[in-house]
Amino acid sequence: MSFGSPQYLLALLVVPAVILVYVVHYRRRSRVAARFASPSLLPNVVDREPGRRRHVPPAILLIALTALLVGLARPKAQISVPREDATIMIAIDTSRSMAADDVRPSRMEAAKAGIREFLAEAPDSYRVGLVSFASDARLVAPPTRDRELVDQALDELRTGEGTALGDAIAKAVEVGQAVNAASTATGEEPTPTTILLVSDGKDDGSLVSPQEASGQARERNVPVFTVGMGTPDGVVEVPLAGGYTARVEVPADPTTLRRVAGETGGRFFSSPTLEQLQAVYSDLQSRLGREDESHEVTVAFAAGGAIMLLLGGALSASWFRRLP
Of 90, 96, 240, 319, which has fewest CB within 10 angstroms of its CB? Predict the structure, then answer.
């Protein structure tokens, strides 16, 4: 929580002073009462002592005072609200290992299906761009609100050699920042950029290391959410000369993906099955669909303080037939 006028928080020094005055007054009243009557005779005069209940109304009033004083400082809270606009850059791994079928029907096809499901639920106001990466990173669909264009780009993806993961992050950051620059040039508000990186392994052949690319994303406040495709048992068949094929083990390696997400403020999701992949995109959709905004909550503190004042006065009048 932050405050628009934090200097008014000094007024809270009144609270311990009021507590001290109350304690001194209570003890003094007890001593004065003891001068006129023996404590042992009080049960014959008073049906029932209020006991600790006598302190409840003053305590409530003290809470009310605290709330009202905090309200003077114009408190602000981070509130999650629906996001109206955003640029989402999807970077999908098209390396040869994505052809493994440990995630049915294959890592690549499962990734495409999950992305399509994600896009179907994303607000129409979101711009979505698509970067594919194998031996290099390529922009195959610029950020657009045209979902059909992105869907067609997904259809045309083919697997290749290498895993230029770092280059893909750098390319996605570059494109997202270009969209913001174009929006600013036309007088529009820049939109937040988020990267969704779908891959099954570590970097292989990037010109920009994943660590360097993560630093670029972090400097520009671009979180990278990563989805790790596959299991440790992935295998692909590689064609050889003479019509033969070789079975090559391609175990999923989430280490780099975890690190990238952690360094950029995103989150890593593991998806060894298609069913879990659908849950991953559902969770991710809920995270990207909202953003935190700072809102002044002075009215809430004032209303809470007023309610506590009324409650304290009502309890005192009901229990003791007097106001505290």
Answer: 240
